[in-house]
Structure formats: C-alpha cells, structure tokens
Amino acid sequence: MTDSDAIEPAPRPDRRRAIARLGGLGMLAAATALGLSAAARAEGPPPRLLVGFPAGGTIDAVARLLAAAWRSRFASPPLVEQRVGAGGRIAVVALKEAAPDGLTLLLSPASIFTIYPHVYRRLPYDPATDVLPVSPVCDYVCGLGVGPLVPEAVRTLADFVAWVRANPRLGAYGSPAAGAMPHFLGTQFARAAGIELTHVPYRGAVPGLQELMGGQIAAGLFALGDFLPQLAGGRLRLLAVADGHRSRHVPAVPTFAEQGYPALRGVESFGLFLPARAPAGAATQLFELTRTAMADPAVIEGLARLGLQPAAREPAAYARQLAAERERWAPVVRASGFMADD
C-alpha cells in the first residue's frame, strides 16, 4: 500500500489550510515525521535544491526552471543552492548529511551515481544506499564541438581526426568534470578513431566553454544545451551529437553514428534525489510533482531552449535505470584506464 492509499482521519480545518499552503508536495509527510505542528509546516524553511555545478550552466538553469514551477506549491519559494566542487560530489555529500526531512533535494547528472563508482576508489557516499532516486527531470545529449584553435576547414569528425593526427600535441578536449559521462565519451571516441586525445576536466561546462572559445583547448564534449547559446557567434562549431538521431535544435549536425561511430551514444539524465532516510512516500509524492512540472508548457519551452527533453519516471523505474547504466559504463571506464585517487 502506498501513502496515497492509506486511510487517514479527515484533517481539521486549520490543518487542511496548512496542507493546502504546502501544495500537497510530500513535505507534509516529512513534517509529520518530525512531529511539527501545522503552523510550523506552513511557516517553516523553504525546501533546498542542491546543485553541484556552477551557476550559469545547463543544470543550474534546469534547477531554476524547476524551482519556479514549484513556487506555488510551497509556503516559501524553493532555494537553488550551489555546492560546487569535486565534480559534483560535494553536493552529494551535502545531501547525504542533510536532515532526512524531505526539505533537501539534489539535482544531479546521473553519472555521479552510475560512472563515479567505477572511477573513484574512495567515494564519500554509496550510490545504492545513501541516496533515494526520485525521478529524472530531463534528458540531455552530448555534443562534440571545436573552437578557434581548430582551422575553419575542419567541419566533420573525419576532418577533426585528420587534424589531430597532423597536430598531436594540440589534441585536447574539455569536459565538465573528470569521471563524468562526457569524459568517457571522449575516451571512447579516441579509441574508436585511433587517435590520442588529452582530457582536460573543468568545474562545470561554463569555464570549459570559455577556454574552448578562447582557443586554449581544441575541442569540448558538453551538453548540447551548453553549446547552443554560443553557436550563433561563430567561434564554436558543432561536429557531432551523441544520440541515435539528429537533434531538432541543430538538425544540420550529424550524429556520431552517421559519421562512422555507431557505438558512441552520450545521453544522460539530470535527476532528483533525496537522502536515503527521507520519510516514506516522499519520493513518490515528489515524483508526482515533477511529472506535473514536466508537463507545464513554460517548463517544456524553457527546457527546449536548453536543448533538453522533459522526462519523468517513477522512483522504482529510475532506480532500475541507474543500476543498468552502472553496469553499462563499467567496461568503458575499465577500457579507459582512468582511476581517480581522491
């Protein structure tokens, strides 16, 4: 039986008003578990949405879209809180250490829970026991782009491979973090193309794109949404998208598969997570709220501007998806030879 199936006494009028002010968001379950009064639930602190990457990037924009969509559901607007560092791991630790009252959530790339376990010898969290998957919010696709360090004549993956072979010391690509999905998409591409590419990790996409546009690195693998605002200026050229089909946002850009690399697929979710000991039913109730937000035309339009596709899956289904992705990436990480010590 789920929480929604349980039979409870009819709430008193004052309690009913407090529940309405909270918007039925599952924070009621959290507050009840803590024994708070109706007034405290209505006037308590706003929920926090933790993000492990800097302001200005795609995931930060998604967090703010989500917070805006949820604004009317809480007594106080949700707060987006950056906990930047360690490739997103600092934010996971902050979630793990947060009070399990349903008021603190994390918006994170799935790779922190699917790829990092194969990368770091000493993770400060257990992806299977320290967090509770709620739902993906959206799916994003990686793209490979080049900047002014690469000649204008380079327009395809074949051109880029030939240029790297002729300029091996310049063959470097940036990604949002060491151990993140774009990092290993790059190692897969280099192996398949038979070239050497040096990986340059950044603290999020924003500084990586700045150096790509500045000519400090030749190429970058980032979320398509990170590239889109920069393409009109002409300093960046997108060579490939890592999906099974072309993106409607850049329909002229072919996929990796179309250019001879069928195994290269870089699609990942930005997902919501709770502390593992969150109140019973909180994940399901937050999933329902997420599903409603992902159907909001304003959210759909906002995600489209970022090159993202809305997605919402029930907590159990999302947990299974994450487990399958952990298995999928294990041999890719092993083949790369990369292992982090910290």
Structural summary, described in words:
By secondary structure, the chain is α/β, with parallel strands linked by helices. It has 2 domains: 3-140 and 269-336, Bordetella uptake gene, domain 1 (D-Maltodextrin-Binding Protein, domain 2), CATH 3.40.190; 141-259, Periplasmic binding protein-like II (D-Maltodextrin-Binding Protein, domain 2, 3-Layer(aba) Sandwich), CATH 3.40.190.10. Helix content is 40%, strand content 17%. The protein has 14 helices and 10 strands. It has helices spanning 13-22, 27-33, 38-43, 58-70, 89-97, 111-114, 116-119, 157-166, 181-193, 205-213, 224-231, 282-294, 297-305, 315-336, and strands at 48-51, 79-82, 104-109, 131-146, 172-175, 198-201, 219-223, 237-241, 267-275, 309-310. Strands 1, 2, 3, 4, 5, 6, 7, 8, 9 and 10 form a 10-stranded mixed β-sheet that branches. It is globular and about 60 Å long. The two termini are 42 Å apart.
Count helical runs. Answer: 14
How many domains comprise the coordinates? 2
Structural class: alpha/beta
Mind describing the biggest β-sheet?
Answer: 10 strands, mixed
Report the mean per-residue pLDDT as an integer. 86
Radius of gyration: 21 Å
What is the CATH superfamily classification of the largest domain?
Bordetella uptake gene, domain 1
CATH topology of the largest domain: D-Maltodextrin-Binding Protein, domain 2
What is the CATH class name of the largest domain? Alpha Beta
Tell me the series of helices and strands, N- to C-terminal. Answer: HHHEHEHEHHEHEHEHEHEEHHEH
Poorly predicted segments: 1-42
Euclidean distance between termini CA atoms: 42 Å
Please, what is the oligomeric state? single chain
Broad shape: globular
Report the β-strand fraction as a percent range. Answer: 15-25%
Helical percentage:
40-55%
Specify the CATH architecture of the largest domain.
Answer: 3-Layer(aba) Sandwich
Number of strands: 10
